[in-house]
Q: What sequence folds into this?
């Protein structure tokens, strides 16, 4: 009897100690503020990626319309060329694929901060890795790929909150070089003074302007206004995203850090979306 | 305000835009024909330049960019009647020759 009671006591103490340890480890997980920061950053990233992806596609559509006008107006400088030059599929697809990868990254962070369901986490990670691997302009190192995939194994873990934090940190850290690469691609593409994407658009506008047709010229200039404004707002949101990326790292390191830059990023993306929506409706 | 980058593509585009202006302002058929030919050449070079990363530090790059900028000035003067159309055409021809060495 005494031995039984003693055994029960030992088991009770062991269970209590285990429970306390579990509580302590759970406390090492993401704080509500850190979860909110990760989730908000992820959502704004999804939004920005969608905005930029749509801008690449809209600009290509504009160029096709402008070239159709050049063909109709018998532009001597436009014969035997495809209607989508200079925004051929070879130029557009890598950019669209990079934006899809960026969106999947944002979605992965959002899922990581809100879900513990293994299937959901695995699906978000697989979707991101697949889209990043398919994007020709994006490099995802083997180390990052493995790190992200293995980080998703926390869902079955007993100490789920501690493991969740480790997974978020792993994803944010291992994605950093790839994220920088995608942000640079956006920066150069929307640079209004650069020789990349915007030059292609501006050249087509100038080609139409030189044909002396007032309707075609007005339509080209309206498109140019939308594209310039959209590009400027995407660049502004991107600058905020660079700050927010640093902010997220600090927030994850210490729960005393505020997420001001992340909130500024969210506000900039929301503003960009509203303005671009208005400009798109004006053009339609 | 951000300082404008003096890239070959942007200089070519500026020349094309000024050329458009002179085409609008010119009545002489022969000059118009020459200007339209130059427009085709500029557009052809511009088409090749999009997304291309040329070495901006070479002397050829700097020379071509400078000649394009000179051509733009000549075109502006011709539009305003402060210079001859023939002079502007010659400046554009010289700029196109320099660009052809690069693209």
A:
């Amino acid at each position: 009897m005494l031995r039984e009671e003693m055994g029960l006591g030992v088991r009770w103490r062991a269970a209590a100690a285990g429970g306390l340890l579990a509580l302590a480890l759970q406390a090492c997980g993401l704080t509500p503020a850190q979860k909110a920061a990760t989730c908000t950053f992820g959502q704004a990233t999804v939004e920005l990626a969608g905005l930029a992806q749509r801008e690449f596609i809209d600009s290509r559509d504009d160029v096709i319309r402008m070239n159709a006008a050049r063909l109709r107006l018998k532009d001597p400088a436009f014969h035997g060329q495809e209607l989508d030059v200079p925004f051929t599929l070879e130029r557009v697809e890598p950019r669209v694929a990079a934006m899809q990868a960026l969106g999947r990254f944002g979605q992965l962070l959002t899922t990581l901060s809100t879900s513990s369901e293994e299937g959901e986490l695995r699906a978000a990670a697989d979707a991101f890795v697949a889209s990043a691997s398919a994007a020709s302009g994006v490099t995802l190192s083997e180390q990052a790929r493995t790190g992200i995939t293995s980080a998703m194994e926390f869902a079955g873990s007993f100490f789920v909150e501690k493991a969740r934090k480790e997974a978020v940190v792993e994803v944010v850290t291992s994605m950093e070089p790839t994220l920088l690469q995608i942000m640079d691609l956006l920066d150069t593409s929307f640079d209004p003074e650069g020789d990349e994407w915007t030059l292609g658009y501006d050249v087509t506008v100038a080609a139409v302007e030189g044909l002396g047709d007032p309707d075609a010229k007005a339509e080209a200039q309206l498109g140019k206004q939308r594209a310039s404004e959209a590009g400027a707002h995407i660049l502004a949101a991107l600058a905020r995203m660079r700050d927010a990326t640093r902010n997220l790292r600090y927030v994850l390191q210490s729960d005393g850090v505020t997420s001001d830059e992340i909130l500024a990023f969210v506000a900039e993306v929301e503003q960009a979306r509203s303005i671009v929506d208005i400009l798109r409706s004006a053009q339609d | 305000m951000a300082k404008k980058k003096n890239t070959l593509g942007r200089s070519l585009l500026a020349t094309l835009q000024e050329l458009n202006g002179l085409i609008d302002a010119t009545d002489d058929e022969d000059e118009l024909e020459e200007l339209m030919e130059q427009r085709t050449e500029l557009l052809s070079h511009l088409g090749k330049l999009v997304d291309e990363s040329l070495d901006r530090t070479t002397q050829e790059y700097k020379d071509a960019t400078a000649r394009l900028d000179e051509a733009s000035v000549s075109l502006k003067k011709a539009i305003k009647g402060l210079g001859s159309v023939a002079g502007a055409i010659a400046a554009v021809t010289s700029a196109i020759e320099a660009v052809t060495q690069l693209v």
Remarks:
- The longest helix of chain B spans residues 29-49.
- The CA atoms of residues 16 and 40 of chain B lie 10 Å apart.
- The interface with chain A takes residues 2, 4-5, 7-10, 13, 16-17, 19-20, 23-24, 36, 39-40, 43-44, 46-47, 49-53 of chain B (CB under 8 Å).
